[in-house]
Design brief:
Elements: H1 3-15, H2 26-43, E1 54-56, E2 72-74, E3 79-82, E4 85-89, E5 95-100, E6 116-122, E7 126-132, E8 143-145, E9 147-150, H3 168-181, H4 187-207, E10 215-217, E11 231-233
Antiparallel strand pairs: 1-9, 2-7, 3-9, 4-5, 4-8, 6-7, 10-11
Helix pairs in contact: 1-3, 2-3, 3-4
Length: 234
């Protein structure tokens, strides 16, 4: 659903009118702000890692290539958390070199000739990718690729489409907050409907498929209170 479709669905519930306000109307502007509040609620709900928010550097639009003797590269503008490896790809998208990701403070304990990568910065000011050692001529001009978890894309125009699986959550969250602002007694009902949709999305996000339940691998090497490695189940 585009925001225009979301807004039309919301306004039909709010006013029960056939005509939807134009984008120049104050009600449309209010609706856009309420929609983005709903997106933020979804993105930060209960520590969930939403599948829709996993992406890659090259598909983000910010992807770049390795350059000989250049160790630092701007990360994607919407990155929240990085994945586990940085890969160098050839023209056929085959991995020809891999840099394991470490925490920035771990770099001081690595030898100069060690092969690793780390990010400095934060989601608010942007991340910088650091490669060690500096790329040589063999990978000059090759694509730098890595998986990462992004911040949600906020809506700015009527044609924008939110990242989430069920955008009707936005519809009902918008309705709840509009009722709340006007002290409408139906606020709690609308809020309950939106939270129910959010819980269903969480359940579907964590369940995987019936044949392959989604499991987040534990790469720490040990579980708390145990010497055996394992995985977290959801």
């Amino acid at each position: 659903m585009t925001f225009d479709e979301i807004f039309a669905a919301y306004y039909a519930l709010y006013r029960a009118e056939a005509t939807t306000p134009a984008s120049t109307d104050d009600e449309y502007t209010i609706g856009l702000r309420l929609a983005n509040e709903a997106i933020q609620r979804w993105a930060n709900y209960d520590g969930v890692y939403w599948k829709e928010l996993f992406t890659t550097f090259q598909t983000s639009g910010d992807g770049t290539t390795a350059s000989t003797d250049t160790t630092q590269y701007d990360g994607p503008g919407d990155m929240k958390e990085a994945g586990g490896f940085v890969r160098i790809l050839d023209s056929d998208n085959n991995t020809i070199r891999t840099y394991p990701l470490i925490e920035p403070h771990e770099g001081q304990f690595k030898i100069d000739r060690g092969q690793y990568a780390y990010f400095t910065g934060d989601p608010n000011n942007g991340f910088t990718l650091n490669l060690n050692p500096s790329p040589d001529s063999a990978i000059d001009g090759k694509n730098i690729e890595f998986d990462y978890y992004k911040t949600p894309t906020l809506l700015t125009t009527g044609s924008d489409v939110p990242d989430m699986l069920n955008p009707y959550f936005i519809v009902h969250r918008m309705l709840a907050n509009r009722y709340r602002a006007s002290r409408n007694p139906y606020y709690k009902d609308a809020l309950r409907d939106s939270e129910d949709m959010l819980k269903v999305m969480q359940m579907e996000n964590m369940s995987g498929s019936w044949a392959n339940p989604w499991r987040l691998q534990d790469n720490s090497g040990a579980q708390f209170g145990s010497s055996q490695s394992g995985s977290w189940s959801f």
